Amino acid sequence: MIVLTILAALFLPYLIIYLYKNAYNKPKNFPPGPPSLPVYGAFWIVLAHGFTDLATAFKKLGEKYKTKIIGLYMGPVPTIVLNDPELIKEMLNREEFDGRMDIIIFRLRSFWKKLGIFFTDGYFWHQQRRFSLRYLRDYGFGRRCEDLESVVATEVKEMIDLRIGGPKYPAEMDIVKGDLVYMPYFFAIPFLNGMLQVFSRSTLPRSEYKALWALTRGTVLFQRSSTDMGGALSLTPWLKDILPNYSGYNDLVKGNQYLLNFFKKLINEAMETHDETYDRHFLDMYITKMKEEMREKDKTTYSVDQLILTCTDYTFPAASAVQFVLTILVERLLLQPEIQDKIHEEIDRVVGRDRLPNLDDRRNMPYLEACIRETMRYDTTVPLSVPHRAMKDTTLAGYDVPEGTMVSANLTMLHMDKDIWGDPENFRPERFLKNGELDLAATVIAIWSRQKIMCW
Predict the structure, then answer these.
(1) Which residues cross the membrane (predicted)?
(2) Pick the CATH number of 122-335 from 3.40.190.10, 3.90.550.10, 1.10.630.10, 3.40.50.300
(3) pTM above 0.85?
């Protein structure tokens, strides 16, 4: 016992010295930031500055270290967080930052491979993104399409009937209960059936809306089980084996499985009836391309698993982000009823009360669109965006950025920058209007979507 005590006393100073040196050991000419703790780096220090709000945590850290570009370690990964609008714009428009991180959360959602559109990069991402965007457009994705607009209008009518006439099916009773409406899910159906129309030129009838609501619940469960930077699970994947519930692993798998099962069923049905001489929809076009490449090259980046993840990625915003933006807008109308009055007046003046609005009305309803854009600015959906990866050694703002560094854009700092917005703490849709029309030059919230890699 005495020997162990002596050894511990001799070893302890060396351990303290090692930990101290390691805490401040960073790449040469790396941005300033918090020190590293064992195993998790600065992860717990970040959480201490904003446990449920990482954007605010990095704002505080930026103020503490007097910098707009924060450098730290998240576990073993060198990480940079940008709090400056100009640096965010520069990073998102430079190809060397187009990489994606390879972490457990991205792997578990894609059959433990690197698949999909959101979280892939390089040649694979380029091929898959180019093909999918090119042919999804044929069925209304990103352009006007009469069939798609008709589907969305029909689904909107169904949701209005659900609210006014009440539930017809058991699943609807969870969405509308008398005067209570579960807003996020209430808004989901038109967008999800719209995406199904784009993928397969088919939709689910009202009697099967339960499957679409389950899809939304799975998507939301997946998102809420982690953070913009992946959480502790991404830094120490072994947590899935010892703390599967507490680490969020089980909920991530459960939520993601809703999406995989839904699209696996849809794609299997397309595979069973596929005819290479006639493309009925986007799924057919993808399957045809996959078979052609396998015949001609005996290898391909196209696969059934990749098609499942492609559908999953394009559906993700429709299954969560869009309806939450609209829900937050409804909340704002309750907080600021004068905004509701202005929207109501514009709708009555442009659309009237005898029909539903359509996309032709959009140009004549600038105030409503300004309200949607202000909602996206005021309540940032993904505050730190999707984490990027430096694909080679480079520099940013005079600092060295080693290859493999994770780079995150603090979009909340962009959306709350006083130099840009003047009074960012106020919800004021008029900031997006000029002479009564939508001021496209003011739409700085879209700055991050101009990057070449998709990250909605």
Answers:
(1) 41-58, 180-199
(2) 1.10.630.10
(3) yes
